[in-house]
Design a protein that fits this description.
With 208 residues, the protein is α+β, with helices and mostly antiparallel strands. The protein is built from four helices and 14 strands.
Length: 208
């Protein structure tokens, strides 16, 4: 849900102070602040369905889901980044007064036209650098398709799940996400509404 960029360089402290006093959420990328725009009803419905599934399965357990009001902080070399994932699950939470999390095990983003490039490239690289992360899921809005990056030892393995009969297994949380439940009530289009991307193209049949 990102749009305009603010070009001045800001410290982490300046960014966090600005966020605490702002009615508009912004992301922080190594000193640069990027304002965020609102999401469609379709986007938010998919996000909420993920939260409901995860919340029900994780009820009473240490690992808990957080929605897009909670930032994730990422440290890369000398840089710092703060994003607002649509969904994250954290097992080792920061204290309850903190406005961000440092140790997510699962992050989910729902693709939007304005954020597609960020979610599939910039954020993918940043999220996969988080030591605690076990899985990054990207969900299409207009077709029941998920792109999943799973940690396997020191490597990341990509899988694609397609169709309402598909299920995303999350063994590190002892739970799963049903695409039927994620996309409940969503009206699909014949194709994904997106710019073509050779690596993350909309899969019309099959999968891997």
């Amino acid at each position: 849900m990102s749009s305009a960029d603010k070009l001045e360089h800001n410290s982490v402290e300046e960014y966090l102070q600005r966020e605490a006093n702002s009615l508009i959420k912004s992301e922080y990328i190594d000193g640069w602040i990027r304002a965020m725009t609102g999401a469609s009803n379709r986007h938010n419905r998919i996000k909420i369905h993920c939260l409901i599934q995860l919340g029900n399965q994780l009820q009473g357990r240490k690992c808990q889901p957080f929605d897009s009001d909670t930032k994730v902080r990422i440290t890369q070399d000398a840089g710092r980044r703060f994003y607002y994932p649509d969904v994250q699950v954290v097992c080792d939470s920061n204290d309850q007064l903190s406005v961000y999390q440092d140790h997510p095990v699962l992050i989910i983003e729902v693709l939007s036209p304005s954020t597609r490039a960020y979610d599939l490239h910039e954020k993918l690289d940043a999220y996969l650098s988080i030591p605690s992360l076990q899985c990054y899921i990207v969900l299409e809005q207009h077709q029941p398709i998920s792109y999943v990056m799973r940690r396997s030892n020191q490597e990341w393995i990509k899988e694609i799940n397609q169709g309402l009969d598909a299920t995303i297994q999350l063994p590190f949380l002892s739970c799963s996400l049903s695409l039927k439940d994620i996309y409940e009530g969503i009206e699909f289009t014949e194709t994904c509404v997106q710019e073509p991307d050779p690596e993350y193209a909309c899969i019309q049949e099959g999968g891997s």
